[in-house]
Design goal:
The chain is an alpha/beta fold. It has a single domain, classed as TIM Barrel (Alpha-Beta Barrel), CATH 3.20.20. About 40% of the residues lie in helices and about 20% in strands. The strands form 2 sheets. An 8-stranded parallel barrel has the order 1-2-5-6-7-8-9-10, surrounded by 5 helices. Strand 1, helix 2 and strand 2 form a beta-alpha-beta unit. The longest helix is centred in the last third of the chain and has 22 residues.
Length: about 325
């Protein structure tokens, strides 16, 4: 079932979760163990992230350095299929521009269609560590809007090879990312909204936000979207803080602000267990306010750890 159909059928706020693929060489069983307790909350779908390759330099016998591509978390498509089979639940694979050319993207979408996966979250993806700015593959997409256009073209039966006749039309529901505190590469919020609107006009059917810790940022973002005739569902994304390192890591990596009250409460903590409790309580309060606001769904970024998410969502079931 499409994500948007889940929203239409729901009589109350839904809870969905996002997971990371296991590291290369690890079993999927650890992922299953993390997901099992979350199934008690009847999530409508599970998002599975995609991590593009990174590059390392290995010294050869002749002393020269060899550039080698490494993909640390492969298996997004296989994991989506496995989760659907094991838990009878819809999955949403992340599809990114980075690391794919257009034909590889088309083939990946064909695989997803064959597997009965009819939802995708379309993202440009971040630059790899060796890049200052994002760089697409040769004959790849530079912007998420271009990738959306390819997905929606396939939904109309248009493939890269125009000579193919009597084509099958896919039926993907397309989600995109939104940034309540703006994308770090955007010059300002109005520019960010302009390009978000373009994605919706191209065919995006819902928006999932980057994590935020101040609900007012989300409320202001929704109002700005509505004022600009962006009327698709906007799903808030939450991530509870669980260790002190998050105070520096999350703002640096995700380009967001942490409220003064949250920071002060965490700095008072004596250990990570106390920090975890503060993070859970903060996310519970965020969730309650978002439900009262009438959001269609609250989306939680599990980052491979479901225990604190369980503590949060169990307060509402």
């Amino acid at each position: 079932m499409k994500v948007t159909e889940h929203f239409k059928q729901a009589k109350e706020t839904l809870f969905s979760f996002e997971i990371l693929p296991p590291l290369k060489g690890k079993s999927i069983n650890s992922l299953y163990e993390n997901l099992k307790p979350l199934m008690e909350f009847n999530p409508p779908f599970i998002d599975v992230t995609y991590h593009r390759e990174e590059y390392i330099y290995k010294k050869q016998n002749n002393g020269l350095l060899e550039r080698k591509a490494v993909r640390k978390r492969p298996g997004t498509v296989g994991i989506c299929s496995a989760i659907m089979n094991k838990f009878q639940i819809d999955t949403v694979p992340h599809i990114i521009c980075g690391g794919f050319n257009k034909e590889e993207t088309e083939n990946a979408l064909i695989d997803l269609d064959f597997l009965g996966i009819d939802n995708v979250l379309v993202l440009r993806g971040d630059p790899i560590k060796s890049e200052t700015y994002f760089s697409p593959e040769n004959d790849g997409h530079k912007y998420a809007s271009d990738l959306i256009n390819q997905v929606c073209s396939m939904n109309k039966g248009k493939y890269l090879d125009e000579d193919i006749k009597n084509t099958h039309s896919t039926n993907f529901c397309v989600g995109v990312a939104g940034y309540p505190e703006k994308h770090f590469e955007s010059p300002n919020m109005n520019s960010d909204i302009y390009f978000l609107k373009k994605k919706v006009e191209l065919g995006a059917e819902y928006i999932v936000t980057q994590m935020f810790f101040d609900n007012q940022k989300y409320f202001d973002f929704v109002k700005l979207c509505r004022d600009n005739n962006i009327n698709v569902p906007i799903v808030p994304g939450l991530k509870p803080i669980s260790i002190k390192k998050h105070l520096n890591l999350l703002p640096h990596r995700f380009h967001l602000n942490l409220p003064d009250e949250l920071v002060k409460n965490i700095l008072k903590c004596k250990n990570n267990e106390d920090i975890r409790k503060v993070g859970v309580e903060w996310a519970i309060n965020q969730t309650k306010e978002l439900i009262d606001y009438g959001v269609p769904c609250v989306h939680y970024y599990t980052m491979g750890n479901s225990s604190n998410i369980i503590d949060i969502v169990s307060k509402f079931n």
